[in-house]
Amino acid sequence: MASSQHPSSIADREPMLRVENLQTAFFTDKEVIRACDGVSFDIKPGETVGVVGESGSGKSVTARSIMGLIKSPGRILDGSIQFKGEELTTKSEKEYRQIRGGDIAMVFQDPLTSLNPVYSVGNQIKEALRLHQGLTGTEATKEAINLLEAVGIPDAGRRVREYPHEFSGGMRQRAVIAMALACDPELLICDEPTTALDVTIQAQILELLDELQEERDLAIMFITHDMGVIAEIADRVNVMYAGEIVESAPVVELFENPRHPYTRGLLRSIPGNNPDADRLVTIEGDVPTPNEPATYCRFAPRCPEAFDSCDKVHPVPVAVNDDSEDHAAACLLYPEDVSQSEAIDVHRNAATESEDEL
Ligand SMILES: Nc1ncnc2c1ncn2[C@@H]1O[C@H](COP(=O)(O)OP(=O)(O)OP(=O)(O)O)[C@@H](O)[C@H]1O
Ligand code: NI
């Protein structure tokens, strides 16, 4: 799925999903957790957008916000989510049910959360086919077998009658993907679908997604904390930290020229990427809970390059330099082709403008 394998035309397409300034918060007894704090990005048809970041950075909340799955004490406070030009944040639960599993489907880390143990795998796929494509009877059975074959389940004609517990972990996740495909979605959101699987099976599932994307022109949002998986699957990458996208770039550009100190840290922590280290290098410290408005850089306490202003000015995503429209970083070191004080002003002014809007 690396961009080199794709027709260059993806870049010229209109976005299918447009997320703008998404703010999703959880109101707990103790604090307000700003799990998504001003998240903006696009996904184009046929494109795979990887979302990467440590645990607690807001990846799943971003996905659940798009799927209309944020439940109390959580709420979308502000921002817009547009799918093919339609605003999703104002949809009712009933309207959202049509969208979920219709135009947009989601695959979770644990396949058992999507499978019902008391129905055969085939019956669950057939139910999705009935709901979303109006297929019933032998027609539905035939299509269910086709889908199981399409996701690489051998002996599909027999296995269609089996129950989830009769499938291995990898086969279950394939079955869940088949169920997602039964809805013929245009956007597939995958939240760490391979994390629980061993590496060989993981590689097979990634390859499967790649093939399905090519056949069906699927747009994919792929969440992982694994930079290796990102390298394998993404066309574009959003790096998240404490509720914000701190860097966004095409995958090759991100790996060759990471700009945000957090991204650099993540890349150094890939085994084998740091020949000097005799152990896995990780970034010292933890992701802070984003429980207050961002009036500073949330990464500053862990950042090897932090300076005075990082505690006082909130960095917003800016083009890293004049030549690169497609590569943004939310860090006071950018844009890199102006003086440091000018760069800081860019961020300070952007922050004041957004305050004026509120
Ligand atoms: N139901 C909830 N109630 C309270 N806080 C929540 C809830 N769901 C998520 N959060 C908080 O929102 C923040 C973002 O969580 P999220 O699950 O999106 O992280 P993530 O990037 O997906 O992490 P992981 O890699 O562990 O899956 C965290 O601080 C988390 O504690
Ligand atoms: Ni998550």
Automatic annotation (TrEMBL):
Membrane-protein topology: Peripheral membrane protein
GO cellular component, one term: plasma membrane
Enzyme superclass (EC): translocase
Catalytic activity: Ni(2+)(out) + ATP + H2O = Ni(2+)(in) + ADP + phosphate + H(+)
UniProt EC number: 7.2.2.11
Highest taxon in the source lineage: Archaea
UniProt xrefs under InterPro entries: AAA+_ATPase (IPR003593), ABC_Ni/Peptide_Import (IPR050388), ABC_transporter-like_ATP-bd (IPR003439), ABC_transporter-like_CS (IPR017871), Oligopep_ABC_C (IPR013563), P-loop_NTPase (IPR027417)
Domain ABC transporter per the UniProt entry, residue ranges: 17-267
A GO MF term: ATP hydrolysis activity
Primary location recorded for the protein, binned into one broad class: membrane
Signal peptide: none
GO biological process, one term: peptide transport
Alphabetized UniProt keyword annotations: ATP-binding, Cell membrane, Ion transport, Membrane, Nucleotide-binding, Translocase, Transport
Localization per record: Cell membrane
Assembly behavior: The complex is composed of two ATP-binding proteins (NikD and NikE), two transmembrane proteins (NikB and NikC) and a solute-binding protein (NikA).
Protein name per UniProt: Nickel import system ATP-binding protein NikD
Species: Haladaptatus paucihalophilus DX253
